[in-house]
Write a structure and sequence with these properties.
With 270 residues, the chain is α+β, with helices and mostly antiparallel strands. It has 12 helices and 8 strands. It starts with 5 loop residues before the first strand and ends with a helix. The chain has a 4-stranded mixed sheet. Strands 3, 5, 6 and 7 form a 4-stranded antiparallel sheet that branches.
Length: 270
């Protein structure tokens, strides 16, 4: 019988204790054991959805279709900013995808092209709909995002995800890849200790982006793609945010803008 992975907790102290248990690595197996990633939701009913899913109303989007869009907007971004974006042409990317199912490469294409993953994360950090789901290696940063806009009558959620747990993955049609942390991108990536996941299927010769909920629920085993969900009452928001501020986890430390400074000072003084 597998261990339960959904936990309904009621205090900051219970959260810390549960996180310590989740982060404890299994005995050495000689194979990879990933660090745990965390993600905070201010409403526990929200699913693991990317901004691309929300923008397209969950319509299936192929990797090539999305790439054509972000390649098309590249010249305007370069013209209006100081960014120089060096990524493969659409035809080169299409050629790669066409050969992908028969290729020995198993990872997502941007992993082997630093400029492309840099562009994907640049778009994600600046609000363009993205297939990347952002996570943090800090459970406290995730807790901050969970409670930042929490409502007293709701429960918040912190998700924890471990890609590898001491065994290899089973190859299949659906996949989740973790991207990061060593990426040249927006400074928020480092302030928030970010990493990212992307889910896709590569069957039928037309790779497409997939829902995280669908892929993780299909592929999770006791060896890889482990997902935990911890919920807490929104009513403890003031207490939690005060404790996080003592750790220097606040709007300003995570975003570094003047607006975030004003939010941090308001939270402190008012």
């Amino acid at each position: 019988m597998s261990e339960p992975r959904d936990f309904e907790l009621n205090s900051f102290e219970e959260f810390e204790q549960k996180i310590l248990k989740i982060m404890t690595k299994p005995a050495k197996t000689g194979l990879k054991i990933s660090d745990v990633l965390f993600r905070g939701h201010s409403d526990s009913t929200w699913k693991l959805e990317t901004t691309l899913e929300r923008a397209t109303n969950k319509r299936d989007v192929s990797l090539l279709e999305y790439y054509n869009v972000i390649n098309r907007i590249k010249p305007e971004i370069e013209s209006r900013t100081t960014e120089t974006i060096n990524i493969p042409t659409c035809s080169n990317y299409a050629h790669y995808l066409a050969s992908w199912p028969n290729s020995s490469k198993s990872s997502w294409y941007p992993k082997s092209t630093p400029e492309l993953i840099q562009y994907f994360t640049y778009l994600r950090h600046h609000g363009f709909p993205s297939p990347l789901l952002d996570w943090t290696t800090s459970s406290y940063v995730a807790l901050y995002f969970a409670f930042k806009d929490a409502m007293p009558g709701n429960r918040v959620a912190v998700y924890a995800f471990r890609e590898y747990n001491g065994n290899s993955k089973v190859s299949g049609g659906m996949k989740v890849d973790v991207i990061g942390p060593y990426i040249r991108t927006h400074i928020r990536h480092f302030q928030q200790q970010s990493q990212y996941t992307v889910c896709f299927s590569k069957n039928n010769g037309n790779p497409k982006y997939e829902s995280h909920d669908a892929v993780i629920s299909t592929t999770t085993t006791h060896n890889y793609n482990l997902l935990w969900k911890i919920t807490l009452p929104g009513s403890i928001r003031t207490e939690v945010m005060a404790k996080l501020n003592l750790m220097n986890i606040n709007d300003y430390s995570l975003f570094g803008t003047e607006e975030s400074l004003m939010n941090t000072l308001a939270a402190k003084e008012l």
